[in-house]
């Protein structure tokens, strides 16, 4: 299935689709889910300190019997327990049971303490020491990248960001900036239009394309993201869905298909929908405020 590897700016490459562990929690169930993803053909596992399941991901990797160089592992510095980058990467390596990490990301720009240039120097040192093969960032906007690149000796290999049709217009300048600077983009939450926001404007073009291709709408969304040139990070606990996600690599959308999905996506304001949903989960309190702050939504 042609989810081709994507070349990174440091000479390494990354599988075009990855299995994310964000919502898996920990315990035996998360081990089984990662094992299932590997068994159906995923070769890229994406985890993070914050997800609290690096250890479970590592167990599944070892139990898979796959050779280390056949699996690409991403994890992220999330600032857990206030630990610094140097200590955190050692903890991640220990939990994963690995000698090196393929891609290590700063999870959010505000975690780059005391500032982005200083934090990035620490990331560069990890690469120089051979603890990680590639270094990158997550949820960085253009201005964060501008600060980073102004003093970087090593460019970020990747920037992992939120991307789906309802935020594509908003994210387009960031995509263009990353492309101009040879920074690969990884996309998470690509399936939000069908999993969390059904009934929106993109439903019609997605269904039309899916019917024509004999595919599911979630497969069409993944094919849309692939057409944008990004690496997709997704997940499901259902084996048949994971198999379908891999099969989506075979789908080829026409320029008209992509344009219709883009146009439909631009008709819905993702931030306003997010706020309406947020009102229903007000118990999240301070955490909700933090998310809104990151999305640039002023609640006051």
UniProtKB/TrEMBL annotation:
Q: What is this protein called?
A: NADP-dependent oxidoreductase domain-containing protein
Q: Where is the NADP-dependent oxidoreductase domain?
A: 17-191, 204-264
Which PANTHER family does its entry note? 2,5-DIKETO-D-GLUCONIC ACID REDUCTASE, NADP-DEPENDENT OXIDOREDUCTASE DOMAIN-CONTAINING PROTEIN
Q: Does the keyword Heme apply?
A: no
What does the record give as the active site? 51 (proton donor)
| Alphabetized GO MF terms | oxidoreductase activity, acting on NAD(P)H as acceptor; oxidoreductase activity, acting on the CH-OH group of donors, NAD or NADP as acceptor
Residues annotated for substrate binding in this entry:
107
Q: Which InterPro entries match?
A: AKR (IPR020471), AKR3C2/3 (IPR044494), Aldo/ket_reductase_CS (IPR018170), NAD(P)_OxRdtase_dom_sf (IPR036812), NADP_OxRdtase_dom (IPR023210)
**SUPFAM superfamilies for the chain:** NAD(P)-linked oxidoreductase
Provenance organism:
Laccaria amethystina LaAM-08-1
The family assignment reads: Belongs to the aldo/keto reductase family.
The feature of type site (Lowers pKa of active site Tyr) is located at 76
Give the UniProt keywords, A-Z: Membrane, NADP, Oxidoreductase, Transmembrane, Transmembrane helix
């Amino acid at each position: 299935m042609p989810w081709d590897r994507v070349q990174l700016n440091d000479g390494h490459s990354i599988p075009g689709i990855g299995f994310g562990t964000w919502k898996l929690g920990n315990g035996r169930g998360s081990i089984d889910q990662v094992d299932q993803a590997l068994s159906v053909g995923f070769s890229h596992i994406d985890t993070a300190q914050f997800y609290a399941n690096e250890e479970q991901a590592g167990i599944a990797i070892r139990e898979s019997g796959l050779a280390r160089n056949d699996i690409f592992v991403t994890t992220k510095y999330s600032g857990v327990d206030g630990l610094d980058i140097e200590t955190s990467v050692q903890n991640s390596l220990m939990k994963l049971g690995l000698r090196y990490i393929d891609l290590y990301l700063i999870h959010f720009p505000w975690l780059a303490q005391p500032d982005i240039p200083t934090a990035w120097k620490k990331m560069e040192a990890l690469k120089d020491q051979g603890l990680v093969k590639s270094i990158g960032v997550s949820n960085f906007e253009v201005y964060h990248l501008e600060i980073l690149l102004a003093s970087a000796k090593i460019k970020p290999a990747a920037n992992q960001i939120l991307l789906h049709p309802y935020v594509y217009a908003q994210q387009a300048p960031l995509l263009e900036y990353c492309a101009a600077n040879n920074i690969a983009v990884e996309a998470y939450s690509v399936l939000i239009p069908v999993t969390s926001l059904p009934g929106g404007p993109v439903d019609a073009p997605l269904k039309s394309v899916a019917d024509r291709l004999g595919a599911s709408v979630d497969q069409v969304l993944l094919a849309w993201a692939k057409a944008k040139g990004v690496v997709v990070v997704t997940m499901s606990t259902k084996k048949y869905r994971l198999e379908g996600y891999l099969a989506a690599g075979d789908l080829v959308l026409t320029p008209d298909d992509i344009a219709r999905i883009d146009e439909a996506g631009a008709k819905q304001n993702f931030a306003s929908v997010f706020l309406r949903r947020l009102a229903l989960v007000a118990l999240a309190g301070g955490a909700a405020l933090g998310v809104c702050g990151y999305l640039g939504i002023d609640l006051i």
